[in-house]
Specification:
This protein has two domains: 3-132, Creatinase/prolidase N-terminal domain (Creatine Amidinohydrolase, Chain A, domain 1, 3-Layer(aba) Sandwich), CATH 3.40.350; 134-361, Alpha-Beta Complex (Creatine Amidinohydrolase), CATH 3.90.230.10. The protein is elongated and about 70 Å long. α7 crosses α8 (167-180) and α9 (242-261) packs antiparallel against α10 (268-281). It is an alpha+beta fold. The strands form six sheets. A six-stranded mixed sheet has the order 4-3-2-1-5-6, sandwiched between helices. It has a four-stranded mixed sheet with strand order 7-8-11-19. A three-stranded antiparallel sheet has the order 14-17-18, with helices on one face. The protein has helices at residues 3-19, 30-37, 62-68, 81-91, 106-115, 127-133, 137-158, 167-180, 242-261, 268-281, and strands spanning 24-27, 45-49, 52-57, 74-77, 96-99, 120-123, 191-194, 215-220, 223-224, 227-228, 231-236, 293-295, 302-306, 319-322, 325-328, 332-335, 338-343, 346-349, 360-361.
């Protein structure tokens, strides 16, 4: 991503935190460290104050940190974290440190408070999450690559769909293909849900064998340079029933309408309602059991959240999923999900191969 990008992010963080009364900022949340420094290790504490920053790590990560973070950021190997950080802050005359309470357990917050002694903790709003919600060009390119990789994995699994194959077999093929093809781990465990299991929005793949006429939901994603994709496709094993075809068309139209209406300035709930109204015209809104989508980035679920009761406004540069679904017990479920970049003109699809308007019968 480039050192200049990371240093610019650190400066933006400092300005926002100082406006809240903090003289320094501390965070150990791994996506924060990846975003602000490029550090991909699982453990570390970043401390930022005016004009400088330091990453405190134990001996397992010293070499990795020096390799990954900007050279302007001091890498400090520690054995007793609280004592060393407290000393570092004292040398710089820092008496008030900004923290992100939403990223701490109650116990973790109390331990930090005790460990830093007389240093006052300032509870900050979700500054970094707000920064991360609006993507830079380099982040969008990584997500596009992750979308392409996820699409290839789906196509690989699609070629294996047949009567008698187990859900877990298809999941295993997806995982193997993603990792072999360069995905940086998995953003989440892929979902393969067939028949009655497809009526469960977050079903876990099982030993159930696919049967003729089954609806099969594939929900999967890849990770490229830390950034996630998230796509969902629904197919039928053989000829789909008339009810399944109607469900699919309703969901497809709900997604299309939401994608056409999405634009900066719209409320999170407002976009959800577009899809809900589209499903209502088909008599299926009561079977829409989750939000319409979410932000996407270093985490699979980020701001914004496209759901009832959410009043936040969409912004240019956000990457979102649009994933309406209907789930009818005893029949099955249909979900279609693609990833979009919000631009001044509307929603730009990042997933290269859109779902067809009619259910694919395999």
């Amino acid at each position: 991503m480039g050192e200049r990008k990371h240093l610019s992010r650190l400066r933006r963080l400092w300005r926002k935190a100082s406006d809240e009364g903090a003289e320094a900022v501390i965070t150990s949340f791994p996506p924060h460290l990846r975003y602000l420094l490029g550090f991909s290790g699982s453990t570390g504490w970043l401390v930022v104050c005016e004009g400088e920053a330091a990453l405190f790590v134990d001996g397992r990560y010293t070499s990795q940190a020096k390799r990954e973070v900007p050279e302007e950021v001091e890498v400090v190997e520690v054995k007793r974290f609280y004592e060393e950080v407290k000393g570092w802050l004292k040398e710089r005359g820092v008496s008030a440190v900004g923290v992100f309470p939403q990223r701490f357990t109650v116990d973790g917050y109390e331990r930090l408070k005790r460990g830093l002694g007389r240093v006052r903790l300032v509870k900050l709003p979700a500054i970094i999450e707000e920064m991360r919600a609006v993507k830079e060009d380099c982040e969008v390119e990584a997500i596009k690559e992750a979308c392409r990789l996820a699409q290839r994995a789906f196509e690989r699994a699609l070629g294996l769909v047949r009567e008698g194959v187990e859900e877990q077999e298809l999941q295993a093929e997806i995982v193997y293909f993603l990792l072999k093809s360069g995905s940086e781990g998995l953003p989440f465990d892929p979902i393969v849900a067939s028949g009655e299991n497809s009526a469960l929005p977050h079903a876990k793949p099982s030993g159930r064998r696919l049967k003729k006429g089954d609806l099969v939901i594939f929900d999967l994603g890849a990770r490229v340079r830390g950034y996630c994709s998230d796509i969902t496709r629904t197919v039928s094993v053989g000829r789909a029933s008339s009810e399944a075809r109607r469900m699919y068309r309703a969901v497809w139209e709900a997604q299309r309408r939401a994608a056409e209406r999405a634009r900066p300035g719209m409320s999170e709930e407002g976009l959800y309602r577009v899809a809900e109204r589209a499903l209502k015209r088909w008599g299926m809104s009561e079977y829409f059991k989750h939000g319409l989508g979410h932000g996407l980035g270093l985490e699979i679920h980020e701001s914004p959240s496209l759901a009832k009761g959410r009043k936040g406004r969409l912004k240019r540069g956000m990457v979102i999923t649009i994933e309406p679904g209907v789930y009818i017990e005893g029949v099955g479920g249909v979900r279609i999900e693609d990833d979009f970049l919000l631009t001044a003109k509307g929603a730009e699809r990042l997933t290269e191969e859109p779902a067809p308007p009619r259910i694919l019968e395999v």
